[in-house]
Recover the amino acids of this structure.
RNA sequence: GCUCGGGUGGCGGAAUUGGUAUACGCACAACACUUAAAAUGUUGCGCCGCAAGGCAUGCGGGUUCGAGCCCCGCCCCGAGCACCA
């Protein structure tokens, strides 16, 4: 045998990357092939900046690449696309700094990203790249916006918005983190501005309900639920007594006397209607619209001062002083519709203007209200009794606040009811009097959709004075391209730099032909990323954003779950019993709107914003009939962060940034990819450790050197045709089950068994994203092979096949070396054979009183009686028995015998 | 404060979900090869103990023949939400 060449990753990796590029290996060949076995794998496309890929990107990209590659070998028609999110602040800031057009910068940055991505050997379909700042792409982003506008879901509103004084940009609530700008960390202020809004709140229920139909990892689902924040309760009306002197009912306790059509009413949202009888005062937000009307002349000065003070505070300051419940009395009173008592109306900034009705009724059963009442000596009344008598003693004396549910007291006819019962009875009672109505409230607020920046999609609307409103551009005029400007800076007045472009701004109204002005705000960064997964299905279409046929195919409802367990174990009578291909067909017919991207992996940081926004867009597009599925993604998983070697988040300022280019240069792409998978559990944060990379590189060297142990001639394996792989239950797969064993030489039964157990483990672990244990299993297999004198061609090739999703270059090279004409990337994934995986001899552990005392090597088929007898006969066990009779002997099949004395 | 995760050797981490705790890798040590080093290979490697054996999965209890895993009560770390009525 000629001397083996050394493993040289640089040479072979470049070779295969060139080959894949030249042959367009991973481009989808047929958009409609065997729909029951298609797979759409999606990663979050990178947000473009000048720094290029950091080491965090390869984690999700490699993970999905491994899954995509395995699925291809299993015969799936796989779509694994890539694109670039290129509108946004990093590029704009760079343009401002250098004075160069962002369009140019984007092209350079994309070229760099692309070079890096290619060097990582990803099996992307490079023919489907999308770029959100390309007019061919944003034409359709604008088109979708027009549909929102035409359906009344995009509207302009003057309202206080979150303003970042550094970025000079209006922010959606979702983009404000702890009162600071999400991007730059500057505390945000409130500013009043006309803003385009998208009515995402109209979809609150649908967005919540949709979560029940998708397979998201729990934290992602829970975060979405919390963000939408649905709560059931009631809106209660509190009639205001403008002047105490004029009110004849003063001091009376007769709720029936409350007039029905009093025109000054404070509405309050509550989830605790059971506490209504303890309501002794009202508190409204400083921004409440009725503040002026409610403030009496005597209180005017104090109230104005308080409001001014709170307006000056930033959101962090307002929430920082958590415990101190400052407030001010308006001078007015309102009537409690349940008790008829008069309640002073206060203003306090712990009440949020944006939530509920911006007003609360305050009582002894809420910590904040309780604290405020104590501070200002406002009378309190207890109406909920806890079960614990000791607590009740203290609560009655008003020494302690009891905010939980209990039994009603001091509540007239409702005394004795539980909180839950009381809510159901009190609501109709108040409803009848016209003082309350059922209400479901959401935390979710409408989405501020305009930005005062240059580098974003222009909003395709003009304002026409004559038509008295905003007029959409005809769809035929899209895309409305960004004009070239000289300066990219946002202005202090909060206007976009586009507003200085008078040529561009002044236009004619598409409706009346008269003079009109263009909207100069642009769309937020989230716009382009809210629908890119749809464009991948049909990226070059210039008639529509994607054809329905292609969307139906790629986003289709077919559930090809990696774990068919879910379907087969379902109690659903429809699926019980028979699980054949007709199930999929049945689903697609009966369950319209079902489906989505098969598997979407992305960062936890996007589970609220991006995921919610894109679900909203997709649901809207479904409702207007242009996409086939209600939800955009069937399955969502998330990766943990990669931390610097010091265990801290990687950042330039800390100097702990790892550059993937350098790692690849030093260890090779395959080793880098393997280390990314091996470094730790996929969903958890892990520290970077270059030593670990050394370990996987050693493993690859060993796999390479194992070829010397292969002595028999290659079993010329014919690649199964695509059709053969699609029918995966084949008898035709040359590598499946026993057929492969013909090629075996001297190897032990043990190795064959291990080989099959490894096939099983690696297959299951890849689907479960347990890449670390999959790789550990491959290492174990190769360690066993190292111990053998010789291994068979067949065994070696199975190892290479299992390795190939992780380390595709070395695998393809070895595959070629061993005389296989076909691409390994499309060769059949090895088949697991349960029979061959069985070991002939097994180790049974013998425990005495729960402690391991002996181990027995026995034939796998040993009977229960035999093994029990053998265990009791064991010398070591006898020693522990000390002549006594065992009380009980337990046998766990194939595992252990437990002797109890 | 609330909601999710998590706590296992010197380190990253395994453990088929109640059945041999510490797989795999790193680091370390000894040996082989080498003039030497690197690389590679072999062996060892939780703690105490000469051994028999004992003790170990954040802490304290419990259930069980048997608990890293289940139950009760705490402590610590990470992520998200946070005056949401």
């Amino acid at each position: 045998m000629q001397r083996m060449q050394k493993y040289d990753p640089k040479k072979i990796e470049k070779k295969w990357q060139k080959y894949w590029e030249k042959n367009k290996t991973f481009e989808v060949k047929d958009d409609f092939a065997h729909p029951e076995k298609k797979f759409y794998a999606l990663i979050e496309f990178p947000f473009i900046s000048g720094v290029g890929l950091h080491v965090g990107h390869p984690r999700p990209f490699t993970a999905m690449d491994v899954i995509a590659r395995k699925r291809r070998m299993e015969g799936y028609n796989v779509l694994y696309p890539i694109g670039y999110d290129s509108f946004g602040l990093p590029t704009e800031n760079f343009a401002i700094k250098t004075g160069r057009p962002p369009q140019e910068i984007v092209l350079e940055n994309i070229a760099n990203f692309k070079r890096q991505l290619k060097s990582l050997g990803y099996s992307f379909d490079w023919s489907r790249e999308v770029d959100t700042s390309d007019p061919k792409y944003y034409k359709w982003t604008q088109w979708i916006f027009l549909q929102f506008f035409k359906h009344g879901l995009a509207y302009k509103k003057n309202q206080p918005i979150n303003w970042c004084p550094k970025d000079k940009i209006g922010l959606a609530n979702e983009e404000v983190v702890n009162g600071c700008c999400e991007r730059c960390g500057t505390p945000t202020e409130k500013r009043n501005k006309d803003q385009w809004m998208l009515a995402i709140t109209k979809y609150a229920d649908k967005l919540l309900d949709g979560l029940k139909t998708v397979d998201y990892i729990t934290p992602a689902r829970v975060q979405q639920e919390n963000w939408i924040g649905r709560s059931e309760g009631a809106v209660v009306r509190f009639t205001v007594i403008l002047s105490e002197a004029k009110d004849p009912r003063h001091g009376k306790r007769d709720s029936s006397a409350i007039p029905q059509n009093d025109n000054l009413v404070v509405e309050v949202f509550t989830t605790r209607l059971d506490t209504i009888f303890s309501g002794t005062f009202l508190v409204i937000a400083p921004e409440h619209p009725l503040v002026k009307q409610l403030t009496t002349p005597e209180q005017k000065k104090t109230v104005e001062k308080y409001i001014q003070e709170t307006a000056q505070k930033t959101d962090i300051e307002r929430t920082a002083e958590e415990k101190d419940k400052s407030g001010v009395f308006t001078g007015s009173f309102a009537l409690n519709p349940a008790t008829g008592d008069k309640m002073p109306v206060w203003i306090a900034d712990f009440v949020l203007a944006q939530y509920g009705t911006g007003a609360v009724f305050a009582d002894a059963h809420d910590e904040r209200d309780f604290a405020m009442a104590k501070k200002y000596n406002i009378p309190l009344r207890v109406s909920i009794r806890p079960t614990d008598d000791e607590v009740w003693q203290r609560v009655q004396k008003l020494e302690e606040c009891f905010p939980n549910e209990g039994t009603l007291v001091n509540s007239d006819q409702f005394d004795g009811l539980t909180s839950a019962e009381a809510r159901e009875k009190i609501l109709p009672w108040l409803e009848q009097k016209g003082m309350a109505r059922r209400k479901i409230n959401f935390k979710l607020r409408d989405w501020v959709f305009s930005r005062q920046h240059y580098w974003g999609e222009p909003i395709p609307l003009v304002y026409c004075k004559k038509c008295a409103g905003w007029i959409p551009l005809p769809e035929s005029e899209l895309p409305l391209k960004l004009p070239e400007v000289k300066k990219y800076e946002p202005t202090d007045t909060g206007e976009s730099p586009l507003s200085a472009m008078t040529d561009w701004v002044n236009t004619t109204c598409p409706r009346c032909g008269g003079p009109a002005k263009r909207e100069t705000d642009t769309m937020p960064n989230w716009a382009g990323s809210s629908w890119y997964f749809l464009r991948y299905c049909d990226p070059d279409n210039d008639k529509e954003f994607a054809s329905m046929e292609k969307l139906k195919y790629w986003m289709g409802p077919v559930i090809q779950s990696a774990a068919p367990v879910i379907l087969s174990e379902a109690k659903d009578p429809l699926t019980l019993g028979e699980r054949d291909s007709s199930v999929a067909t049945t689903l697609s017919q009966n369950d319209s709107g079902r489906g989505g991207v098969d598997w979407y992996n992305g960062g936890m940081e996007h589970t609220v914003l991006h995921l919610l926004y894109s679900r909203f867009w997709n649901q809207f597009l479904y409702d207007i009939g242009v996409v086939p599925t209600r939800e955009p993604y069937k399955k969502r998983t998330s990766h943990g962060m990669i931390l610097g070697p010091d265990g801290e988040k990687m950042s330039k300022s800390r100097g702990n940034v790892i550059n993937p280019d350098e790692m690849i240069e030093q260890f090779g792409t395959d080793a880098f990819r393997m280390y990314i998978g091996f470094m730790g559990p996929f969903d958890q944060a892990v520290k970077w450790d270059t030593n670990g990379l050394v370990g996987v590189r050693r493993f690859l060297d060993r796999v390479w050197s194992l070829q010397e142990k292969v002595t028999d001639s290659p079993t010329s394996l014919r690649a199964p045709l695509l059709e053969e792989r699609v029918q995966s239950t084949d008898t035709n797969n040359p590598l499946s089950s026993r057929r492969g064993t013909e090629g075996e030489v001297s190897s032990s039964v043990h190795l064959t068994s291990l080989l099959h157990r490894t096939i099983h483990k690696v297959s299951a672990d890849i689907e479960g994203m347990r890449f670390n244990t999959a790789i550990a299993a491959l290492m174990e297999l190769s360690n066993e092979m190292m111990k053998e004198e010789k291994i068979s061609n067949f065994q070696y090739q199975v190892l290479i096949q299992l390795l190939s999703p992780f380390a595709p270059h070395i695998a393809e090279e070895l595959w070629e070396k061993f005389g296989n004409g076909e691409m390994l990337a499309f060769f059949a994934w090895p088949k697991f054979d349960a029979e061959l995986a069985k070991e002939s001899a097994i180790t049974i552990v013998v425990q005495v009183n729960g402690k391991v005392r002996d181990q027995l090597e026995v034939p796998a088929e040993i009977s229960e009686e035999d093994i029990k007898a053998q265990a009791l006969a064991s010398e070591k066990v006898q020693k522990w028995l000390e002549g006594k009779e065992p009380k009980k002997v337990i046998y766990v099949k194939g595992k252990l015998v437990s002797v109890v004395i």
About this structure: The first strand of chain A starts at residue 38 and ends at 43. Confidence is low (pLDDT under 50) at residues 244-261, 559-590, 718-722, 728-746 of chain A.
